[in-house]
Amino acid sequence: YKNLLIYCKKLVDHLENNPVLLKEDNYIASIYNLLLVQIEMKKFDDALKTIKKLRDFKSNSPVMQARIFVTSYDTELNLYLKTGEFEKGIDLIKDIEEGLNRLKEKINKESEALFSYNIAYLYFGLGEYNDSLKWINKIINDKELTIREDIQCFARILNLLIHFELGNYDLIEYIMKSTRRYLSNKNKLNKFELIILNHIKKLITAGVDDDKMYIIHEWKKELNKISDDILEIKAFEYFDFISWLESKLEKKSFMETVKGKKKQIILKN
Questions:
Q1: 3-state secondary structure string, 167-210?
Q2: Distance, CA of 170 to chain centre
Q3: According to the 3-state scheme, what is the secondary structure of 16-27?
Q4: Residues 66 and 30: beta-carbon distance below 8 Å
């Protein structure tokens, strides 16, 4: 990644210093590649500067405007999700809604669903579960959304966690049945999905707090076992389950736990 970062930077500089080569598609793609590497290497401040560079690029093409809008805002939301700066992500919602409305003819359902999921995640991180539920329902109730099964699956899993946090245990029983049915219809349940469903069921039937802490501890242990499994690893990109479980064990807020991990990353770098 260090070498990749060097050459991604060189490519952006080369295009900027040679206007004759500066075709919109190539330039936007080169900036986006640089941005992905910066985030992968946890260079978050540099990534925010690159997002600004991307967003400041002016294009007369509605298609390119939509591409810049989706790429820049989706990446910035993901950055705040990774760092636990959920409140900064919330500040972007008004601009995102305005952009989705202004460019709706050029933005596909997949991008809309991804924005809804990430905004629901932001509200969840802030502990504003009713707002989180409102956004996650945009995905679950959208009958026209026939693509991106991954987003639809994790929307249903996040929906379970939201109702757990709201204390809607009676409702969870029903939601779990429909979630299990949905996940089974798309494919055979994988290890990750089975672990999530089984432990949520155990939690809502546990009697005392000590039992719940034991279940959460065992839940975290099982997720850690599969965290390096290439077939399961993608799941951890959609939601930081380990940090959420750690927040329960340490009696901290989810946001506080994720931010704490960001500080450790900065110190290492």
A1: CCHHHHHHHHHHHHHHHHHHCCCCHHHHHHHHHHHHHHHCCCHH
A2: 28
A3: HHCHHHCCHHHH
A4: no
The amino acid that residue 249 corresponds to is L
Q: Which residue, 59, 46, 62, is CA-closest to 12? A: 46
Torsion on CA atoms 80, 84, 86, 92, rounded to nearest 10:
-10
**Predicted confidence (pLDDT) per residue in 98-113, tens digit:** 999 999 889 988 899 9
DSSP 3-state percent helix, strand, coil across the chain (nearest 5): 80, 0, 20
- Integer Rg of the chain from CA: 20
pLDDT tens sequence across 200-219: 999 988 877 889 999 999 99
Name the pLDDT band for 56 (thresholds 50, 70, 90). very high
Give yes or no for a contact between 135 and 120, defined as CB atoms under 8 angstroms apart: yes
Looking up tokens 């994720």 gives 258
User: Rounded to an integer, what distance in angstroms lies between the CA atom of residue 247 and that of residue 112?
Assistant: 30
> pTM score, two decimals?
0.91
Q: Which residues have C-beta within 8 Å of that of residue 22, sequence separation ≥ 6?
A: 15, 16
Tokens linked to 126: 């802030």
Strands (E), the chain: none
For residue 89, with 0-12 CB atoms within 10 Å meaning exposed, 13-18 middle and 19 or more buried, which class applies?
buried
